[in-house]
């Protein structure tokens, strides 16, 4: 198959499941072309594969430039006009709206990769168009049954086939011997408690930083950032109030290096604000990329108590908390049976998160379309 993937936002390296989908299909012999933007804010896509072509174009930076969305539209039309494709896949809001329209013009099946929940109820025209593009897609790729059930309750998916793909990276699971974080922060005696990836009020980073002041000296909180944050008011506030129990790893890394970095931590933390995220937090499930990465590297997880994260306690690989003040106690509980928690983390990843079986199912569905 020849598959055209459209992604308006310059965040390909920050979407584990999309990278996994592209890599998995390329490994199975399918040709992938990715049209996406480049930006100084984010690293250039690092993936390389003989069956993958990545075509980058600059985000709009000046008023007199063409809008970014219009640039993507022109490039997509050119690509579909001069090259033969079997499927067009949209990978974010605007890309799916565009893919839906182009699928009609070029008579190609549209596959919707659902990066995030749409806004419900939709307010703007773009939000309404996004929902329509999902409802008319031949296949919807979302993360899990939590996402499927919620989307089904908000829109008409009667004629759309749904496939699942956890937000997991394509590298192998396992515990790696690494001191990458220790080298970065210059601390080799204390146990590193890692918060990796997105940084902001949605992840209660300020509250996490404040709570870590009360931890005993055995533990050090490290924030590893997925992209440059200098100049962001929220980040600057937390950074300026850092204390002896916290440190920062500010240089982003690629997928392979990220596994080494995560493996060097002791426990992973994933907090979500239902106040700010609403249903996006409540029905998080296996969309939480940082949790998948922790589990893949054998890290026990401390996370916000949400119904869709109950599997962490069911697999005895993590502890759910109602407030940041409970983290110290949770850490001590994990340390009492640390090796068991680590092994269970790997088991949980292989049972729920490992993308290999999901990719096979998606490929079978795509082949039926082409």
Give the SSE layout:
Blueprint: E1 2-7, H1 16-27, E2 31-38, E3 52-58, H2 68-82, E4 87-90, H3 93-106, E5 110-113, H4 125-136, E6 139-142, H5 145-154, E7 161-164, H6 180-185, E8 191-197, H7 205-211, E9 219-225, H8 233-240, E10 246-249, H9 255-263, E11 267-270, H10 274-277, H11 279-282, H12 289-296, E12 301-304, H13 311-314, E13 318-321, H14 327-336, H15 338-353, H16 356-369
Parallel strand pairs: 1-2, 1-4, 2-3, 4-5, 5-6, 6-7, 8-9, 8-11, 9-10, 11-12, 12-13
Helix pairs in contact: 2-3, 3-4, 12-15
Brief rundown of the structure:
The chain is an alpha/beta fold and 370 residues long. The chain has 16 helices and 13 strands.
Describe this structure in words.
The protein is an alpha/beta fold and 370 residues long. Helix content is 41%, strand content 18%. It is built from 16 helices and 13 strands. The strands form two sheets. It has a seven-stranded parallel beta sheet with strand order 3-2-1-4-5-6-7, with helices on both faces. Strand 1, helix 1 and strand 2 (31-38) form a beta-alpha-beta unit. Helix 3 (93-106) crosses helix 4. The protein is globular, with a radius of gyration of 21 Å. The model has no long low-confidence stretch (mean pLDDT 94).
């Amino acid at each position: 198959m020849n598959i055209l993937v459209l992604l308006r936002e310059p965040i390909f390296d920050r979407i584990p499941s999309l990278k996994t989908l592209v890599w998995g299909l390329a490994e199975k012999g399918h040709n992938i072309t990715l049209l996406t933007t480049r930006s100084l804010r984010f690293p250039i896509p690092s993936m390389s594969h003989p069956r993958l072509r990545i075509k980058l174009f600059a985000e709009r930076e000046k008023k007199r430039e063409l809008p970014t969305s219009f640039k993507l539209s022109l490039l997509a039309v050119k690509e579909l006009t001069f090259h033969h494709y079997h499927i067009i896949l949209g990978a974010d809001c605007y890309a799916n709206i565009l893919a839906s329209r182009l699928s009609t013009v070029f008579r190609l099946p549209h596959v919707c990769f659902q990066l995030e929940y749409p806004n419900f109820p939709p307010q703007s025209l773009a939000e309404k168009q996004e929902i329509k593009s999902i409802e008319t897609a031949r296949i919807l790729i979302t993360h899990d049954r939590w996402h499927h059930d919620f989307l089904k309750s908000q829109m008409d998916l009667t004629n759309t086939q749904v496939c699942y793909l956890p937000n997991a990276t394509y590298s192998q699971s396992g515990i790696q011997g690494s001191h990458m974080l220790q080298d970065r922060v210059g601390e080799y005696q204390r146990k590193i408690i890692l918060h990796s990836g997105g940084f902001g009020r949605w992840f209660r980073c300020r509250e996490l930083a404040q709570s870590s002041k009360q931890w005993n000296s055995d533990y050090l909180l490290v924030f590893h950032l997925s992209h440059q944050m200098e100049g962001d008011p929220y980040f600057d506030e937390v950074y300026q109030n850092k204390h002896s129990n916290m440190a920062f790893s500010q240089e982003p890394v690629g997928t392979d290096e990220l596994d080494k970095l995560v493996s060097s931590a002791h426990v992973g933390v994933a907090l979500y604000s239902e106040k700010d995220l609403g249903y996006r937090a409540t029905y998080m499930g296996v969309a939480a990329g940082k949790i998948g990465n922790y589990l893949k590297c054998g890290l026990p997880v401390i996370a916000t108590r949400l119904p869709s994260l109950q599997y962490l306690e069911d697999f005895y690989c993590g502890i759910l908390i109602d407030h940041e003040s409970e983290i110290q106690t949770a850490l001590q509980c994990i340390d009492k049976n640390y090796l068991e928690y680590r092994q269970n983390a790997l088991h949980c990843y292989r049972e729920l998160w490992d993308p290999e079986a999901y990719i096979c199912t998606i490929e079978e569905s795509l082949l039926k379309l082409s």
